Amino acid sequence: MVTKIIDAPRKARGRPPSFDRETALVAAMRLFWDRGYEGTSFDDLIAVMGISASSFYNSFGSKEALYHEAIDAYARQAGAWFVTALQVNDSTVEAFRALFDAAAREFTRCDAPSGCMIATAATQCSPAQNRLKAMMIDQRRMAEDAMKQRLAQGVAKGDLPKDTDVDALAAYFSVVMQGLGIQARDGASRKKLTEIGHMALAVLKR
């Protein structure tokens, strides 16, 4: 859920595509988000993207390559609100309150699949898809690292006690964030997710 440096997409050879590549990518991202990698068929992909099989292969290469691009697109989208929330306030408590409030909103939007694409994706997959599983782990670790840095900033400013275990606390908040994504996927309301997030803040007030 954190932005990262992304290599520029490879340009396909031959004639330029006769469709809007970014629009097709967003459509694929939403389908993957809703159904997962293995739950999304090739036929469903080209149907929702509005392209032919030949255009798909010419522009995206393969289903796995497209999934990598879709995860990158989601990470950029989620990273925007994730990073902004952590930086919104000098107070560490209020920064994490803003983060959990933002997660509750984003995970329950009416115009997007529920939950977090990264939290629910590829936790279990076939051995052939270990690369995808590793990619999801890396994304979750980046989010945890961002929270750890924010906690360390709080310690440095005297906002948190000097003996705060920022590693354990960041891991705890990472678990909470992933749990919120799964709860939303199971149909939890925005109100419930907000309450859970606020309860998690209690560890910062001791």
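The record above closes out task 2.4. Task 2.5 opens with a second protein, given below.
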Amino acid sequence: MWLSALAAQNFRCLEKYSIEPHARLNLFVGANAAGKTSLLESIFVLGRARSFRGSSAGELAGPAGQHWGVRGRLQSADDGTPGSAMLMRWQNGQTSVHIDSHEAKRAELVERLPIQVIDPAQHRLLEDGPGYRRRYLDWGVFHVEHRFLKVWRTYERALRQRNQALRQSASDRLLRAWDNDLINSAVQVAELRKAYLERLRPILNHHVGRLLGIERWTVELQQGWRRELGFAEALDAGRDRDRRMRQTVEGPHRAELRIRFGEHSVRNHVSRGQQKMLIAALVLAQAELIRIERGAPPILLIDDLPAELGAEFQSRFVDVLKTYEGQLFITALQIDPGLQALLGGTLFHVEQGQVRSRDD
């Protein structure tokens, strides 16, 4: 599965581009502020229906006005059969998604085009709050457990209704009216996350070993409520506290993925280069599990691959990427010796918002 065609209009500094990416490796080279990251962002938007830089849809519009569009063709066969045409468009505050000319939901886009990214902001996965790590985990669960989205939406709906009842100082009888859906869906969310992490862990151990060369590290899932209690018991035990706080304090929405090197959190005890390698291991492990479960790996975007990496880490990273079976889109300021080993796909030059292949 790969993008055989890609185009965008008025997307940030990219006035207009249209390219035919290589099925395996696409390397984008150019100076700072040339538009390389924006190009990767346009691909990410096509697969995730949102920006990986946290920007709103309106902030993605370029100088031509309050509109932008990204389109691509997703190829899934080697016989030349035309693949799915995908379009993500925003205009005057309205977003639309189309797959093969039919209006679609964002979840269908995410399901159809799995995309992962490794960029400088990914350090937030390790340094910021647990919400980032929950999103990392849930994206993987969504792609290998098809019932996860429905269960999670049931939990979110019941949680909103219970929290509204708490804010209105509703009776215990009314609170308990929402508890059945909340409890049943919470237990399922926790079980699906746990089962996914158990499948992910050995693959993750392998990638951590290859990229970081370490063994003393752990990744554990904290379910979001007290370990010694079932969720129904936790709700009962925390009812008075929830009333004071006017919200449901415990549950899967408070789950945490804890990552440690030896006895220490990775936040303050590893270098930036080690953090980048750990993030790469986390992303590549997810991609490998999706390949095993679905038969095709996600498209992988890597922004400024050499940044923050010494020669040894960069060499390890490149060696791993050479064996990656999915489509790669990588940006860099220049082709340095570490990246030479990756050449063999298509090299693009990005300059002042224009994208050209080396053959143009």
